[in-house]
Design brief:
- The structure is a single chain.
- The protein is an alpha/beta fold.
- It has eight helices and 17 strands.
- It has helices spanning about 15-25, 60-70, 120-125, 135, 155-160, 180-190, 235-240, 280-300, and strands spanning about 5-10, 30-35, 75-80, 80-85, 90-95, 100-105, 110-115, 130, 145-150, 170-175, 195, 200-205, 210-215, 220, 225-230, 230-235, 265.
- Strands 1, 2, 3, 4, 5, 6 and 17 form a seven-stranded mixed beta sheet that branches.
- The chain is elongated, with a radius of gyration of 21 Å.
């Protein structure tokens, strides 16, 4: 493109599409580039997203937000971004096809979940047999026998959090013994969380529940719900290419307006904040898009 775009948004999850709505309504020339990998697409039905009392499926929510962005003129392209570089005019965004020039960039690339090495794991997440967000759907397992698979202290924290909803919580610790500190072990015991150590040998799923987990040493154990607490990997590679700095948690450092340590490069959503919630991602996207618009106004 001879004339740079006002902005390129990388990622078409709730954050990226929300940023596109705002930028398009600010009458900005904006293109959204994505690789169709939004983790929101895994959500079978969200019951904690405001405005949908009966819940909404992740794919349905994404389709609604995308249609709204396109209604106001945002262009959404299925194109994986391969490189991001700072140039005199702003940024060059490269894909496997065309390259794009933009005066500002908003990254909404999210995170990749570290899920257990179990057969059919993605299908299990989509069917809510394996869950990855107790903040999102812990209410739905109220009173059930719940297991958390973890390999460090994060697993202990999630198991304790799930006691908000059930007094039948177990932690399946699959990491090294030293990865679960004694203080966490004591806290689990004090709160009545059952600790199971060892690798999961197999898993059996049916249409409604997790029927059995087989362990090499103690034999099969049945649960109603299973959570993965193995952590996530923020997708910050493009930002690092452009020179942005990361925090100790591996996520991007941003200011109050969602701008990274690189001028004109903004970020919103899961790659910024560890809460991993759709509503906060959309709020950050609104902040970032408004900041981009105001920044561009100052140079015009």
């Amino acid at each position: 493109m001879d004339e740079p775009l006002d902005a390129v948004v990388v990622g078409a999850g709730p954050a990226g599409l929300t940023a596109a709505i705002y930028l398009a309504r600010f009458r900005r020339r904006v293109v959204v580039l994505h690789d169709d990998s939004s983790r929101a697409a895994w959500i079978p039905r969200s019951h904690n997203h405001p405005g949908f009392p009966g819940g909404i499926a992740g794919l349905d929510l994404l389709a609604r937000i995308r249609a709204q962005a396109e209604e106001f003129g945002a262009v959404i392209e299925d194109a994986a971004v391969t490189a991001l570089a700072v140039e005199d005019h702003g940024f060059t965004v490269e894909t496997e096809g065309p390259a794009y020039r933009a005066r500002a960039v908003i990254l909404a690339t999210g995170v990749v979940d570290k899920v257990p090495d179990l057969p059919g794991v993605e299908d299990a997440v989509r069917r809510a047999l394996l869950r990855i967000c107790p903040i999102c759907d812990g209410f739905e397992v109220s009173g059930q026998a719940v297991a958390v698979i973890g390999d460090d202290a994060l697993g202990a924290r999630e198991a304790l959090f799930l006691q908000t909803y059930s007094d039948q919580v177990s932690l399946i610790h699959v990491g090294a013994a030293e990865a679960l500190p004694e203080a966490d072990r004591a806290r689990l015991a004090a709160h009545g969380v059952r600790l199971i150590e060892g690798q999961v040998a197999s898993v059996t799923l049916d249409n409604e529940r997790l029927t059995a987990l087989a362990f090499t040493e103690i034999g099969p154990v049945e649960f109603d719900a299973l959570y993965s607490a193995l952590g996530v990997r923020p997708r910050c590679g493009l930002a690092v290419q452009a020179g942005a700095r990361l925090g100790e948690d591996g996520r991007l450092i941003v200011d109050d307006h969602q701008q990274t340590t690189v001028a004109g490069l903004y970020a919103a959503g899961d790659l910024v904040r560890g809460l991993n919630q759709i509503s906060t991602a959309q709020g950050e996207a609104a902040i970032a898009a408004t900041a981009v618009h105001n920044q561009l106004r100052e140079t015009e």
